[in-house]
Amino acid sequence: MRMEMRRLRRKRGLTKDARALTVGLHRAAYTRIEQGHRTPNVLMGIRLA
Length: 49
What we know:
Layout (H helix, E strand, L loop, with lengths): L1 H10 L4 H8 L3 H8 L7 H7 L1
Helix pairs in contact: 2-3
């Protein structure tokens, strides 16, 4: 999942800050999810999709 999140974010030309803002997270929380240190709950998974 994490590589796919990173690939899609970069493909869209977004920074971690910008992507986190679009899904309603702090950048640090988004980074932990993207790096695989945290698993998003179902609702956050839907917003990230």
